[in-house]
Design a protein that fits this description.
single chain; alpha/beta; Rossmann fold; Arc Repressor Mutant, subunit A; 2 domains; five-stranded parallel sheet; 10 helices; 5 strands
C-alpha cells in the first residue's frame, strides 16, 4: 500500500469506533491509515510490514492489554509513537503506560476534538494528554525535568552534539558512519532516556550541560 501522509495504524476491536477514528484521520491530508488490526498479535505483524509512525491502541484488546501491546511495539520498533485510546484513565494506568513507552492519551469522549492534535504532537515527538490527564500529574509521572547526562554514552554525546549543531539525521549518519535508521533510533532513545520531548529540548540540554563541542 502506498501511503501519502504519515502512516497510522489502528488497533481498535470495535468496528464502529475504528471506522469513526479512520474517518477522522482520513479527513486530514497529513495522515493516512496504513493498517488496521483487532488483535495484538495481528498488530505486531502488521507493524513490521507497514512500518507506521504512530499506532492508535485501544486500552482493552481481546488477546492483550493496550499497555502490553505498547510495550511490545516499542521494543521491536523504537521509533513508533503510541497513542492510547480509552474511556477513562487512572494515575496507576498512566504510570504503567508511560513506563511502556506511550506518550499520547486520548479519551473516547474527546476523540473528535483531540485525535488530530494528538497525531500532530506525536509526529513531532511531543507528548499529548489534553483533557485526558492533568498536566501536573503527567509531569510528575513522566519524571520531572530532564535527567543529568551522567548515564550518557560517548556515542549518545556525539549524536546530541551534532543534533544541537543543526545537522540532519542524514548528515549525522554520514558523519558517524552509521545508517539513517540508526540515527533515528538514537534520537528516539535519547528523548526517552533523558526526558527530552523534541529537537529544541535536545539543543537546550546540550547547551546547558556543555555537550556541544563547537
Amino acid at each position: 500500500m502506498t501511503v501519502a501522509g504519515v502512516p497510522v495504524m489502528l488497533v481498535v476491536p470495535n468496528s464502529v469506533e475504528r471506522s469513526g477514528i479512520r474517518e477522522i484521520i482520513e479527513s486530514c491530508p497529513r495522515y493516512e491509515v496504513a493498517a488496521e488490526a483487532i488483535l495484538a498479535e495481528t498488530a505486531l505483524g502488521m507493524a513490521a510490514e507497514t512500518k507506521p509512525d504512530i499506532v492508535v491502541v485501544e486500552y482493552g484488546l481481546v488477546d492483550a492489554t493496550g499497555i502490553g501491546l505498547a510495550h511490545r511495539l516499542v521494543h521491536y520498533h523504537p521509533n513508533i509513537e503510541i497513542l492510547l485510546y480509552a474511556h477513562v484513565v487512572s494515575e496507576e494506568w498512566i504510570a504503567d503506560a508511560l513506563r511502556e513507552g506511550a506518550r499520547g492519551f486520548v479519551l473516547k469522549s474527546g476523540v473528535d476534538r483531540h485525535l488530530i492534535p494528538a497525531l500532530d504532537a506525536l509526529s513531532d515527538h511531543r507528548p499529548y494528554w489534553n483533557e485526558a490527564v492533568d498536566e501536573k500529574l503527567f509531569e510528575r509521572l513522566i519524571g520531572g525535568p530532564p535527567r543529568a547526562p551522567d548515564a550518557m554514552t560517548e556515542r549518545e554525546r556525539q549524536v546530541v552534539d551534532l543534533v544541537a549543531q543543526g545537522l540532519s539525521n542524514k548528515e549525522i549518519a554520514h558523519r558517524l558512519n552509521l545508517s539513517h535508521k540508526s540515527i533515528e533510533t538514537f534520537r528516539t532513545a535519547l528523548r526517552r532516556k533523558f526526558r527530552l520531548r523534541n529537537t529544541a529540548d535536545i539543543v537546550r540540554y546540550a547547551v546547558k550541560h556543555e555537550i556541544i563541542q563547537g
